[in-house]
Write a structure and sequence with these properties.
By secondary structure, this protein is an all-alpha fold. The protein is 94% helix and 0% strand. The protein contains two helices and no strands.
């Protein structure tokens, strides 16, 4: 049960970062120049961490 909560939080964080990045692209101008690329790089890192969390949860729940 705790693993499912951690996975849900990781996925929600990735979705929020993706939404913020897409919004900054949509707004355009100075906001887009400063934040869109940075947010997309952070999203890639967050996705990597989320995948690691999902794989760890799957590994430890299958051991039980």
């Amino acid at each position: 049960m705790t693993g499912q909560i951690v996975v849900a939080i990781a996925i929600a964080v990735v979705a929020l970062i993706l939404s913020a990045g897409l919004y900054s692209l949509w707004v355009g101008g100075d906001v887009s120049r400063t934040w869109s690329n940075r947010l997309m790089r952070i999203r890639v890192l967050a996705q990597f961490i989320a995948i690691l969390i999902i794989m760890a949860v799957l590994y430890f729940t299958s051991k039980s």
